[in-house]
């Protein structure tokens, strides 16, 4: 029964989330339930049917989940934020996001440090340490994206006694459009 159940789950993953970089499908078979998360509503519906047919509960969360309900958006405040395959520093890098880039939040984890699962503008899903981002409501990130129409050509920003060298292509707000970089709290952009 378990082998067939695992094959059915693998079929759902291949059909609805064929590329793990562009979607999340993390589901495990436990004695009395299927557990995990996915970004696909269709996969979630299929998993619920499979679990019911197997007489198991379906404890599979749809991402984004409740951990990011009040703050579903993020903006990179570091020069570059690493986007990692797993929520651990030594994980393989899936991509990176430059200063000023907006990201969609999918999940927040506090164990082992504060980690955020994000969807980047290129569609990649990955994890990043929370310290690289400022988080807030969608309107806040949309406002920043509207104002941040400039791109760095390798600029160095000076703030009081700090300096921040921006990567080529980092988003910045040009003079007259508001603050040049997001603060670490949602109200500061």
Account of the protein in words:
The chain has 189 residues and is of the alpha+beta class. It contains 3 helices and 14 strands. It has a 5-stranded antiparallel β-sheet, with helices on one face. The chain has a 3-stranded mixed β-sheet with strand order 1-2-3, with helices on one face. A hairpin with a 2-residue loop joins strand 12 (156-159) and strand 13 (162-165). Helix 1 packs antiparallel against helix 2 (41-53).
Task: Provide keyphrases for this structure.
elongated, 3 helices, five-stranded antiparallel sheet, 189 residues, three-stranded mixed sheet, 14 strands, alpha+beta
Number of helices: 3
Low-confidence stretches: 183-189
What is the C-alpha radius of gyration, as a whole number of Å?
19 Å
Percent range for helical residues? 10-25%
Q: Return the structural class.
A: alpha+beta
- Summarize model confidence as the mean pLDDT: 88
**Count of strand segments:** 14
- CA-based shape: elongated
Strand content: 25-35%
Termini, distance in Å?
A: 54 Å
Largest sheet: 5 strands, antiparallel
H/E element order: HEEHEEEEEEEEHEEEE
Strand order in the largest sheet: 9-8-7-4-10
């Amino acid at each position: 029964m378990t082998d067939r159940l695992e094959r059915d789950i693998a079929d759902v993953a291949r059909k609805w989330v064929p590329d793990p970089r562009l979607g999340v499908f993390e589901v495990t078979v436990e004695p009395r339930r299927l557990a995990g998360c996915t970004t696909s509503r269709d996969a979630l519906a299929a998993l619920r049917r499979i679990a019911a047919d197997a007489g198991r509960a379906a404890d599979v969360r749809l991402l984004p989940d409740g951990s990011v309900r009040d703050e579903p958006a993020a903006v990179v405040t570091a020069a570059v934020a690493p986007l990692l395959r797993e929520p651990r520093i030594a994980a393989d890098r899936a991509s990176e996001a430059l200063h000023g880039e907006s990201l969609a939040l999918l999940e927040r984890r506090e164990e082992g440090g504060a980690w955020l699962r994000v969807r980047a503008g290129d569609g990649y899903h990955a994890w990043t340490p929370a310290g690289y981002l400022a988080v807030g409501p969608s309107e806040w990130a949309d406002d920043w994206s509207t104002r941040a129409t400039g791109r760095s050509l390798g600029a160095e920003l000076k703030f009081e006694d700090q300096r921040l060298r921006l990567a080529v292509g980092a988003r910045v707000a040009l003079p007259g459009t508001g603050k040049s970089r997001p603060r670490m709290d949602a109200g500061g952009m």
